[in-house]
Amino acid sequence: MSDLFDISGKRALITGGSRGIGLMIARGFVEAGAKVTVSSRKAEVCDAVAAELSAVGECRSMPADLSTEAECRRLAEQVSEAEGGQLDILVNNAGATWGAPMDDFDDAAWDRVLDLNVKGVFHLTRFLRGALAAAATPDDPSRVINIGSIDGLHVSALETYSYSASKAAVHHLTRVLAARLAPDLITVNAIAPGPFESKMMAATLETFGEEIRRSVPLGRIGEPTDMAGTAIFLSSRAGRYLTGTVIPVDGGLSTTI
Fold first, then answer.
1. Mean pLDDT score, 112-128
2. What is the pLDDT of residue 221?
3. Which of 5, 33, 42, 114 is deepest in the core (most CB within 10 A)?
4. One of 122, 127, 163, 196 is an active-site residue; which one?
5. Contacts with 246 (C-beta within 8 Å, 6 or more apart), sequence order
6. Which domains does the chain have, with CATH numbers?
7. Is the dihedral of CA 77, 81, 82, 85 positive or negative?
8. Catalytic residue status for 161
9. No. of H helices and E strands in the chain?
10. Nearest one of 72, 77, 117, 69 to 97, comparing CA atoms
């Protein structure tokens, strides 16, 4: 039991790892002894976060704009080369949101979100399939963790049509990929976060923070260790027999109301 949640030495790529949910997971992984690569669109921010986390453990920066297939391929090739053709953990966290009244919700509001939140998850996973399979064993499968949202599980009060649809798509894509990649000894699971302190949630929490806290059955906003702990569980021996699951981490917001 002493190593049930051990991920030390595992090679992990975390997209959108320079802020918010991705940074919570990246920090938790580094502190747990994993060898972490963080990727995000803004190179200077990505580099700064990698430098900060390198003071704690092993972390490096590989910036990329994962809203395009070409960039997904480039990042996958760069990571695979740097890791000797093997990758233990892929966390597909990079994402975007958009909010506007229904009458103003045009193609740009859909394309920007779906290109990154859904197509980016699919393309990066398929381009890294070989490296994930190369690292996998029957006793220790490789892991893909997709970051969805409780907005893909219940109807949001906000007019974020493309975001909610994209996260529901991520949840089902998780199940489809879990079935396809199981023969390669790769598990695919999703985490559906509720309210956490992040840049994406900042404006919402500033305006509705107290109301949101009161609506959460456990009475608080999520903390970084809540998110890191779930990702570590899925990546460790404790989570090796789970695949195709969507785990809400939301204080009961989507599961008890």
1. 98
2. 92
3. 114
4. 163
5. 148, 153, 171, 174, 175, 189, 190, 191, 192
6. 11-249 (3.40.50.720)
7. positive
8. no
9. 9, 7
10. 117
